[in-house]
Design goal:
The chain is α+β, with helices and mostly antiparallel strands. It has 2 domains: about 150 residues, no CATH class; about 260 residues, Alpha-Beta Complex (Transposase Inhibitor Protein From Tn5, Chain A, domain 1). The protein contains 15 helices and 16 strands. The strands form 4 sheets. A 9-stranded mixed sheet has the order 8-7-3-9-10-16-15-14-11, sandwiched between helices. β9, α9 and β10 form a beta-alpha-beta unit. The C terminus is likely disordered.
């Protein structure tokens, strides 16, 4: 079946007669076809039975409907009602039958759908690399780290307004607690999802390890040689750091990680031993020193008087004090290549400080990385190592985009079947466009 035949001779314009709403879906639908996603899904969901509507076409159209704002399966009617634009589109009952067929396929159908998504991503990324010479680099302040594929791990809470499967009470209300991995190079393109029960923990090591493996597997093989993995303190664990260290030790591969680190008693003791001159000025997103005007500064707003400016944040390394300080090696249970850094910054008005932080007025954040100490150039500077961890916050943009594109509007049965992979399908079709990857010619 020609799943792309609908677009032959099709022209899209902003004026004239017969203008229809939702016409922007044409580009999204064509992207699914051009990347081979629709065809791959057709092969993955093939059946010897005679079907009026190709199941790959139906599944891809469902993903497009989600991107267009569909919140329930019945919203699929929007595309069904535009047959002059989209050609024959399956009915809502056919969409439900397709989902049930995928669910009955079990793990076998799950693997086939995942393989189809991975194949489409390989083609899309190859087109991006061919057009730009390489995959976009990782933005770090005023610099770009080229040749490295960055994976960012994070969790979020989605709300459920009815008694859906595995929806439970959590620290933000009632719903689910998904875990996701996104690619920073492509603007936050999700690589893997884990749709968990609402009460799932933020730092469940087994979940993070499974998601990490799935995210690496989702990256096309040619882009796995040099990886960067980041995670905030809520998701960091001993098992995750150990796994990252094992991956970094593989012959022929490079992996740099940056994970949040807890501020416990040993870290507080080490911070009290840091001499003032060991703190280096932190930089902002433009690569400039993070500073603000002093309250008693002169009237000239563009002056360069040192007394008129106050540095707002500093960074330092605690590895030496934690490994060779008065308490001996307090990191002996952790990988030898791991280094611990600290950042202190002036809190925003109304910020809640711990008793330790209230003592000197600084707010502290710690993180661990395996970035070598002898790295030459700008990436070896503590300020840029700090930025490499702070840009973990960009994953929040991917989460917001995902929620705008349907993340959180789960049907009641989604956890009990491989239909969960429809979120991965949406990842490949929707987020490729949402995050600005070039269209595939």
């Amino acid at each position: 079946m020609q799943v792309t035949g609908w677009s032959r001779g099709l022209e899209v314009s902003g004026g004239g007669q017969g203008v229809v709403s939702h016409a922007g879906l044409v580009l999204l639908r064509q992207l699914a076809d051009k990347t081979g996603l629709t065809g791959g899904l057709s092969r993955a969901l093939a059946t010897p039975r005679f079907l009026v509507h190709d199941r790959g076409r139906v599944t891809a159209d469902l993903a497009c409907a989600i991107a267009d704002g569909a919140r329930v399966i019945s919203d699929f009617r929007v595309m069904t009602d535009q047959q002059k634009l989209f050609g024959p589109v399956a009915s809502v009952p056919t969409a439900w039958r397709t989902l049930k067929e995928i669910a009955r396929g079990g793990t076998r159908a799950d693997r086939r759908v995942t393989a189809a998504v991975a194949t489409a991503r390989r083609l899309a990324w190859a087109q991006v690399a061919a057009r730009h010479g390489a995959l976009p680099g990782v933005r770090l302040a005023d610099r770009t780290l080229a040749g490295v594929t960055c994976i960012r791990l994070d969790a979020t809470v989605t709300f459920a307004h009815s008694d859906k499967e595995l929806a439970e009470a959590n620290f933000k209300g009632y719903g689910h607690h998904p875990l996701l991995a996104v690619c920073d190079n492509t603007g936050g393109e999700p690589l893997a999802w884990m749709l968990r029960r609402g009460s799932a923990g933020s730092n469940t090591a087994a979940d993070h390890l499974q998601l990490l493996d799935a995210a690496i597997a989702a990256i096309p093989p040619g882009f796995r040689r040099k990886l960067m993995v980041t995670c905030d303190g809520a998701g960091a664990s001993h098992a995750l750091v150990k796994r990252l260290d094992e991956l970094a030790a593989r012959r022929g591969y490079e992996l740099t990680y940056s994970v949040g680190w807890a501020l416990a008693e040993r870290e507080r003791t080490a911070l009290q031993l840091v001499p003032g001159q060991a703190w280096q000025a932190a930089i902002d997103g433009r690569g400039e020193v993070r500073e603000r005007r002093a309250d008693d500064a002169c009237a000239n707003l563009s002056c360069a008087h040192r007394a008129c400016w106050i540095e707002e944040a500093h960074v330092t390394e605690l590895t030496g004090l934690l490994r060779c300080g008065p308490g001996g090696d307090q990191l002996r249970a952790w990988p030898a290549t791991m280094r611990v850094f600290a950042r202190r910054e002036r809190p925003h008005p109304g910020a809640q400080l711990t008793l330790f932080e209230a003592g000197d007025g600084w707010r502290y954040s710690l993180w661990a990385t395996n970035r070598p100490a002898d790295t030459r150039g700008w990436l070896g500077q503590a300020a840029y190592i700090d930025v490499a961890h702070r840009v973990q916050a960009r994953v929040e943009d991917a989460i917001r985009t995902g929620k705008d594109a349907g993340l959180g509007h789960f049907p009641s049965f989604i956890f009990s079947s491989p239909v969960v992979d429809l979120s991965d399908l949406r990842v490949c079709v929707v987020d490729t466009v949402v995050h600005g990857l070039p269209a595939v010619a």
